[in-house]
Amino acid sequence: MAKRRLLLLLKPFDIYPVGQHFCQSRITNPKIFQFLDNRRKVHKEAVNFCQSILQRKAVDWEPVLRANLSQQIHNFDFVVTVGGDGTLLKASHFMDDSIPVLGVNSDPTKVEEVEEFGDDFDATRSTGYLCAATMNNFEQVLDDILDGRKQPSELLRMSIRVNSQLLSTFALNDILVAHPCPATVSRFSFRITRGDKSSTPLVHCRSSGIRVSTAAGSTAAMLSAGGFEMPILSQDLQYMVREPISPATAVSSLTMHGTMKPDEAMEMTWSSEKGFLYIDGSNVVHSIQYGDTIQTSAAAPHLKVFLPDRLESS
């Protein structure tokens, strides 16, 4: 039997600002420097640990730094990301629905640190919401995958069209459409459609922008803004207008936050001079301008993800 091929996608080691010059010029609290330096060391230890495990397994694997990933991932049986949710999101932008991905949280938050340093600084580490493994259980999870005991789940993604042109990146978490300046009003109109019919009236907005999320992204910025957590395998999308300015009617007020079914889409027209469309955070950004149309829906290939047990049972 041929060995399975695995792509190992790695968050860089130098992601934390702990150089000597930075420390002397910016960080006056030695506890913060020690914390950041420890984060770098813990991540590096996790990468080395995962590589040492893979060397003992009957797999062929290829390490790639996250920043160097620029082409579609093909000819691999599955992908392992070592970092956090951001590294898994980066991988998802180069994957179709044929290859599963396993996320390893290399630097999970330590409750005791948050309690100890909470009065001095934010001591949270990586959330790793979609990551099924850490150093503590990586070998067991890997063995379960290789032996067929653990199967991937299919997570919903979003497709985005700008002026009817399909963008190459599918959103796993969310999209945000907003003016480049956060202090400037975003002007746009939107409606929810099903086929060639409207499910909602056309709503004209002046606000801080609009966010649309999948179930996977509903626990991130959407939840922080007052949205609700969706079951991880939900096929619906959730949307919310950010900080709307005086909705003119009761109808528009009711449509500032809602959900879209799998057969529905959001159609939007941008009415500000310029704007940005952010996909899964700030790393994938598309410029838009006055008169551009944007359509988003669930018409995208799913992503196969090996989920943590807490999400598989939810």
From TrEMBL:
It comes from the Eukaryota. Pfam families: NAD_kinase. Keywords: ATP-binding, Cytoplasm, Kinase, NAD, NADP, Nucleotide-binding, Transferase. GO terms for cellular component: cytoplasm. Its main location: cytoplasm. It is an enzyme of class 2 (transferase). The keyword Signal does not apply. Its EC number is 2.7.1.86. It is found in: Cytoplasm. GO terms for biological process: NAD+ metabolic process; NADP+ biosynthetic process. Signal peptide: none annotated. One of its GO terms (molecular function) is NADH kinase activity. Belongs to the NAD kinase family. Homodimer. This is NADH kinase. It comes from Linum trigynum.
